[in-house]
Amino acid sequence: MPLSSAFASYAAATPLGAASVLHQPYTPARVSVESANAAVLAKLHADLAAARLGGGSKAVMRHRSRSKLLPRERIDAILDEGSPFLELSPLAGYDLYGEEAVPAGGLVTGIANDATVKGGTYYPITVKKHLRLQEVAAACRLPCLYLVDSGGANLPRQAEVFPDRDHFGRIFYNQARMSAAGLPQLAVVLGSCTAGGAYMPAMADESVIVAGNGTIFLAGPPLVKAAMDSSSKGGAKVRGAADPRAILARILDGSKFDEFKANYGRTLVTGFGRMYGQSVGVVANAGVLRSDAALKGSHFIQLCCQRGVPLLFLQDINGFMVGRTAEAGGIAKDGAKMVMAVACASVPKVTVIVGGSYGAGNYGMSGRAYSPSFLYMWPTARIGVMGGEQAAGVLAQVEAEKHKRDAGSSHGPAAPSRAWGPQQAAAFKQAMTEKYE
């Protein structure tokens, strides 16, 4: 069909109004482009201003009462006078979680946690924003400065934050890889940094802690209390733990295993064996990771990389040891060393989760975020920021504090909905245990 005939057929089949809509002349009745753009820009500026307010007036007042600057004030104080600062993704988290506001994703990327937004904890969008900045920094070979004031992963959303490749653990993987590539990783601890929040300064090349405000805990007081309580109810003495050597006897050629440092760091079993004739280095859990076990694991992983021996990880771990003694003994630093060794390993890694895989233990044992060549899960496998009992204990303490704070801020007697006693606490813990197990 000739081109002119095709146009004629189209014109005949198209209503006059539809065919001529692109040719309508400008009239005052039509909305002007300028006013439409002005309205959109006004809303954008209003949304940006709202995001800069952080977690709201109450959270900001509580933050300032601790003699702490807001994140953008911290950045302004650090930058050279008059130098520009490009904030990436300032509207991340905008209207993303319904009534649960997370302005700017709780993170100012350059990088500074906003503790006025959910205690600086990491929502899915926070993780995405942080990873995006690290991607930009790695591509442009820029050093990273982390202004840390964070409670780690957001516990109620751990399924969206913790287990997968581009989740929370990938932040520390990237941090280790960039440091190894010669890109400085610097951290300033400006508040209470717990769990994942503690690993950013622990894995940095250099860290500064602000006296009076800065703290680093692998586990804050609520988790330590919950861990101690659950240990007495369902710890190793009650439930027992599988001996990884029994598993190795069934999967290694001839059940032969040459153990490395058998009498040191006994909660981690390391050594050499063969599978289908191929030499492998085995890293297997035999309990919670303590400082000596983490150092042993780091040494062994680096030795395998030096010799070109692939690594097999058998995960069954509740995490790194918590408590005053462990923290004073340097568990954060020693655990970070093992995580860094795993992240920078240059040999193939295969991970098998045979039992629990909780918290930073998942990172130190080559979880999904640490790019194992393969990751397998037995039917008994469980993954989470922490075990169900510990999660329930932590959230129950947080909920009790929230009710106490709400009751203290109310005028007159507390409303019935604010009542919180042993019965409510027990019911809440039961519901949370069932949710997270």
UniProtKB/TrEMBL annotation:
Matches recorded under PROSITE patterns: COA_CT_CTER, COA_CT_NTER
EC number, UniProt record: 6.4.1.4
Region Disordered, residue ranges: 400-437
GO-annotated molecular function: methylcrotonoyl-CoA carboxylase activity
Entry GO terms, CC: methylcrotonoyl-CoA carboxylase complex; mitochondrion
Top-tier EC class: ligase
Any Pfam family the entry gives: Carboxyl_trans
Domain named CoA carboxyltransferase C-terminal: residues: 230-437
Record's catalysed reaction(s): 3-methylbut-2-enoyl-CoA + hydrogencarbonate + ATP = 3-methyl-(2E)-glutaconyl-CoA + ADP + phosphate + H(+)
Gene Ontology biological process: L-leucine catabolic process
InterPro entries: AcCoA_carboxyl_beta (IPR034733), ClpP/crotonase-like_dom_sf (IPR029045), COA_CT_C (IPR011763), COA_CT_N (IPR011762), MCCB/AccD1-like (IPR045190)
Record domain CoA carboxyltransferase N-terminal: where: 37-229
Pathway the protein acts in: Amino-acid degradation; L-leucine degradation; (S)-3-hydroxy-3-methylglutaryl-CoA from 3-isovaleryl-CoA: step 2/3
Similarity field: Belongs to the AccD/PCCB family.
Protein name from the UniProt record: methylcrotonoyl-CoA carboxylase
Species of provenance: Haematococcus lacustris
